């Protein structure tokens, strides 16, 4: 019985508060267990950036790149810290999506690759470092474009920011982090877009201001189901641009890397609906156009390549006009594909030919062996017939000799 005295009431449990009129088990049934910190509520749904970096195991620079490419942005929890706090939070679902991203493995591979390159460079082995540079891991962003824009209309609705950024890079000088290849690629993309809008008559409004030329285009194609999509962007003036200090070109180049892939997808789709193959061919070595008895430079080439085009846009316009002219004649790739599909759907012979093409190599070897065995058997039969004929001839000669005797 312990210290309990007979006739006195049982004392309350120590775990329950003295002022509460219920036991511990009754209190648990009514209120439940006390939740541990960080397992429920906003603390479990929203994670700070430091925890996210530890969970993913990458640096802050790679995490920013991954968030920009994936389209993940920080969120502010409702019942979280005050607005004045500098802590950044991310949703737990976004963190799980980032943990399964294939680019994460590529970033880790590149980090290990750079360690090897630095080790070789510190040994002053320049030739080995150049050889390793060609073995750097590469990746593509095609799966991210398909993931973020499941429909073509969604991609067109996000073209405003892409065109503004690509136009800005096309007008920037090649210095610092902005390499010449980036500027050249931006000029090709924006000129291909301008050529499509010019040939198709897509420009609906324009306005000239101090910042540049504001343009508005209305895109209405069979891919948009007859819906007109309005796209607005700013084209900077062709003046010398001075790059100010404090601009983080790492972030801008990451956005350009994604928008470059997005523009390539969109232009390929738009040009394909016109029956033209994209990218346009604007540079062929040693190509000339003959007018009468005089040989004139190719209008689709820049003067540095021996052509007449003064800008990349003019070269794209000339090549687009040639492609449109060929498409009207029926020489486009789209017409060729449609003709091939119609021919394959019409005749039975085409179906048989397709079946013959799908025969495996093992079956072909068996057929060859069978044909060889059949040929050998036929040869044996023919040889046997020849022997029988010769034997019959000898017997007839012997009978003739006996008769004469």
- In total, the number of strands is 7
**If you average the pLDDT, what whole number results?**
76
What fraction of the residues are assigned to beta strands by DSSP?
A: 5-15%
Can you list the strand order of the major beta sheet?
A: 3-4-5
Largest sheet entry = 3 strands, antiparallel
Helix and strand layout, with pairings?
Layout: H1 24-31, H2 42-45, E1 46-48, H3 49-56, H4 60-70, E2 89-91, H5 92-99, H6 102-122, H7 126-133, H8 142-148, H9 152-157, H10 159-171, H11 180-200, E3 203-208, E4 212-219, E5 229-236, H12 249-273, E6 288-291, E7 294-297, H13 312-329, H14 333-346, H15 348-357, H16 361-404
Antiparallel strand pairs: 1-2, 3-4, 4-5, 6-7
Helix pairs in contact: 4-12, 6-7, 10-11, 10-12, 11-12, 11-13
Walk me through the structure.
Helices cover 56% and strands 9% of the residues. β3 and β4 (212-219) form a beta hairpin. The model is unreliable at 284-306 (pLDDT under 50). The protein has helices at 24-31, 42-45, 49-56, 60-70, 92-99, 102-122, 126-133, 142-148, 152-157, 159-171, 180-200, 249-273, 312-329, 333-346, 348-357, 361-404, and strands at residues 46-48, 89-91, 203-208, 212-219, 229-236, 288-291, 294-297. It contains 16 helices and 7 strands. It has 405 residues and is mainly alpha-helical. It starts with 23 loop residues before the first helix and ends with a helix. The chain has a 3-stranded antiparallel sheet with strand order 3-4-5.
In short:
This protein is mainly alpha-helical and 405 residues long.
């Amino acid at each position: 019985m312990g210290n309990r005295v007979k006739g006195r009431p049982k004392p309350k449990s120590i775990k329950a508060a003295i002022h509460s009129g219920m036991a511990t088990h009754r209190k648990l049934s009514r209120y439940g267990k006390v939740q541990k910190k960080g397992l429920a509520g906003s603390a479990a749904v929203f994670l700070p950036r430091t925890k996210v970096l530890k969970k993913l195991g990458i640096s802050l620079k790679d995490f920013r790149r991954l968030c920009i490419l994936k389209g993940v942005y920080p969120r502010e929890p409702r019942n979280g810290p005050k607005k004045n706090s500098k802590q950044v939070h991310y949703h737990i679902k976004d963190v799980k999506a980032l943990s399964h991203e294939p680019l994460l493995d590529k970033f880790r591979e590149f980090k290990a690759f750079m360690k090897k390159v630095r080790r070789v460079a510190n040994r002053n082995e320049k030739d080995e470092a150049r050889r390793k540079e060609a073995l750097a891991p590469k990746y593509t962003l095609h799966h991210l474009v398909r993931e973020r824009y499941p429909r073509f209309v969604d991609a067109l609705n996000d073209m405003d920011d892409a065109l503004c950024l690509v136009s800005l890079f096309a007008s920037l000088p090649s210095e610092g982090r902005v390499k010449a290849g980036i500027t050249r690629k931006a000029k090709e993309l924006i000129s291909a877009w301008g050529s499509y809008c010019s040939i198709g008559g897509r420009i609906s409004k324009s306005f000239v201001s101090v910042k540049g030329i504001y343009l508005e285009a209305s895109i209405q194609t069979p891919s948009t189901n007859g819906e007109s999509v309005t796209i607005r962007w700013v084209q900077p003036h062709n003046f010398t641009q001075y790059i100010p200090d404090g601009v983080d070109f790492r972030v801008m180049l990451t956005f350009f890397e994604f928008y470059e892939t997005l523009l390539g997808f969109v232009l390929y789709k738009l040009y394909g609906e016109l029956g033209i193959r994209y990218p346009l061919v604007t540079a062929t070595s040693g190509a000339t156009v003959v007018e009468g008895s005089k040989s004139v430079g190719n209008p689709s080439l820049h003067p540095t390549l021996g052509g007449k085009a003064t800008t990349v846009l003019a070269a794209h316009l000339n090549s687009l006009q040639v492609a449109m002219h060929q498409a009207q004649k029926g020489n486009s790739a789209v017409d060729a594909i449609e003709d091939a599909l119609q021919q394959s759907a019409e005749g039975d012979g085409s179906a048989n030919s397709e079946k013959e093409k799908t025969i495996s190599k093992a079956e072909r070897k068996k057929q060859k062996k069978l044909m060889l065995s059949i040929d050998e058997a036929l040869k044996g039969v023919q040889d046997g017939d020849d022997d029988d004929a010769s034997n019959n001839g000898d017997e007839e000669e012997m009978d003739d000799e006996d008769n004469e005797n």
